[in-house]
Every structure is written in C-alpha cells, then in structure tokens.
Amino acid sequence: MKFAGYSLGVSFAPIGSNVFAKSFRFPIVGSIYRGNLRSSRLFSASCWREQSNGKNGVVAKQYLPPWFSVAPMMDWTDNHYRTLARLISKHAWLYTEMIAAETIVHQKDNLDRFLAYSPDQHPIVLQIGGSNIENLAKATELANAYCYDEINLNCGCPSPRVAGHGCFGVSLMLDPKFVAEAMSAIAANTNVPVSVKCRIGVDDHDSYDQLCDFIYNVSSFSPTKHFIIHSRKALLNGISPAENRNIPPLKYEYFYGLLRDFPDLTFTINGGISGINEVNAAREAGAHGVMLGRAAYNKYLL
Ligand SMILES: Cc1cc2nc3c(=O)[nH]c(=O)nc-3n(C[C@H](O)[C@H](O)[C@H](O)COP(=O)(O)O)c2cc1C
C-alpha cells in the first residue's frame, strides 16, 4: 500500500469562527439508534422512556453522524464540561473521559458516579480502557443501562501508568489480533456501535504498512468499522502525556492513506485541529469525521 502523499497541513486556513455553531448547518440524516432497555437508574430513566414509547418498545433515535466530535480528555470532558458543550452545540458527538474497565467492574455498586450523565448529552460515546477481555466485556455490559450511543476503546493513551504498567492504551496497537478479540467481546455485550481511537504508531513501530496491518486486523476480525486516528505516533520513552501530544509530528498523510485504502470503513481525523476552517478543510478532503480535543476545551467558542 502506498501513502496518499496528501498533506492536510498546507490546506489549513487560519482559525475561523464558531465550530459548534457551524455544525448546526448540517441536515439531519442521523444513524439509527437502538439502545438497551435495561434501565432503572436516575440519569438513564429518560432513555428508557424514549425507547419504550415506540413500536415494539423501541424508538429509532436520530442523530447526525459524528461529523464533528469533542475528544475524550481525562479530567476535562467530565459531566460539567459536557453539559456546557451540549449547550453550545446540539449535534457534536461528545466523548467521556477514559474510564478503565476495571473501575467499572470493581465499582459495580457505585456506577452512577462513573457512568451517569444528563440525557441532554446525547449523542455521547463512552470511552473505556483496558487489556483484560473479561473485564472489558463485563464493563460494557454494566454500561448498557446508561444507554451510551457508542462504546470506544482507547488504543492511544501513552501515559506510563496506562501504556507501561497497565499495558493498555497505545500499547494495544502492537497487538492488533488482541484488539480484534477485545472489540469482538465489547461488541458482543452491547447493541450500539463500537469504535477504536488510536495513534498512527508507537515508537519505531510507525510505518504506514504497520498502521494498515492494525486497521485491517481489527476491522476484519471484529465488528469495528469506525476508527478515530490521532495522527501522530506515541513515544514510550518516558516523555509526558502532554509532550506526547506535541512532540511527535502530525502525519495527516497516514490518515488520508487510510481513507483511500479502506473505503468501507469510517475514519475520524484527530490531532492539532484548531479551528472551523480546518474542520471544513478536513471534511472537504474526505474525512468522515473531525475530532477536536484541546481546541474544543480551551477555545470552546472557536
Ligand atoms: C487533558 C487531556 C486528557 C486526555 N485524555 C484522553 C483520554 O482519556 N482518552 C483518549 O483517547 N485521549 C485523551 N486525550 C487525547 C485527546 O483525546 C486527543 O487525541 C489529543 O489531545 C489530540 O487532539 P487535539 O490536538 O485536538 O487536542 C487527552 C488529551 C488531553 C489534552
């Protein structure tokens, strides 16, 4: 497979106006949502009501596709931030902070603390982290009661606590067959779509072919059809997570290579995108979705 030879960076214009406001322009052609009916908790009660109103007890809930999303960010995209983000944008897909599967499993009597959210926050994606398939499956099952719209597995976190000792996050990119198995277990325990958020590589495991191998294996051997690509590799040489979001160079050409080489999959671009002009440029260049992290938080009225 060849590189796309496409560099988005050059086509990015200066920061524009409100990215959230612009997202209102899109027509509603949202995907069908069929949630889980097992809900008895405070924050998910309305989810149950919505679903139980319709024929056969299920209402198709329509959202815009995830053309624009706000990234999962530990300690940042908490309930308070997401409530604010939803006031600003009706349609942006909001991601939770990463929650370790072990936390969900071990706190199963205290789940509201970790998983409850206001129904206004839909569409919302739960990001989980972990490398124990049994716990990933169980955590997904426990999360069903909260009616998240998608379950995402973190394959991009370079924090030593996660990628080193914890052996999950971006370390998982080194074992695509395991990720496929994990994603199959997650998908088997939920009715909503599943997705993977990853980097373009780790250390010297950073060729485009190795990235393709990861995407090929995960998409072929699990139901994962949506990938969010943080378009820089991770360095596991002891630099901090913040440095790992700045030092490795962005290689958008990898992202556009994936768009070309896996036409049946859905790809969301992430990393270094800071304004509405850049969001629009990425969409015009073919990205199915655009995810903003720091810009959506630091300059929420872009
Ligand atoms: C404070 C902070 C916490 C983050 N926590 C997570 C996380 O929990 N899960 C994850 O997949 N990425 C996490 N990220 C990475 C972002 O989701 C995103 O991939 C990264 O910031 C690059 O996008 P950006 O340039 O638009 O910020 C975090 C980033 C920041 C700034």
Mind explaining what this structure looks like?
- With 302 residues, the chain is α/β, with parallel strands linked by helices.
- The model is unreliable at 1-46 and 48-60 (pLDDT under 50).
- The strands form two sheets. The protein has an eight-stranded parallel barrel, surrounded by five helices. A two-stranded antiparallel ribbon has the order 1-2.
- The chain is 33% helix and 14% strand.
- The longest helix is centred in the middle third of the chain and has 13 residues, at 176-188.
- The site of flavin mononucleotide has 22 residues, from helix 12.
> Helical amount among residues, as a percent range?
25-40%
Unreliable stretches, pLDDT < 50, 5 or more residues? Answer: 1-46, 48-60
- Class computed from helices, strands and strand pairing: alpha/beta
**How many individual helices?**
12
Largest sheet: 8 strands, parallel, barrel
Strand content: 5-15%
CATH topology: TIM Barrel
Structurally, the number of domains stands at 1
Alpha-carbon Rg, integer: 18 Å
In what order do the strands lie side by side in the largest sheet?
Answer: 3-4-6-7-8-9-10-11
Total number of beta strands: 11
CATH class: Alpha Beta
Task: Give the CATH superfamily.
Answer: Aldolase class I
* Overall geometry: globular
Amino- and carboxy-terminal Cα gap = 37 Å
Bound molecules: flavin mononucleotide
CATH architecture: Alpha-Beta Barrel
**Secondary-structure element order, as H and E?**
HEHEEHEEHHEHEHHEHEHEHEH
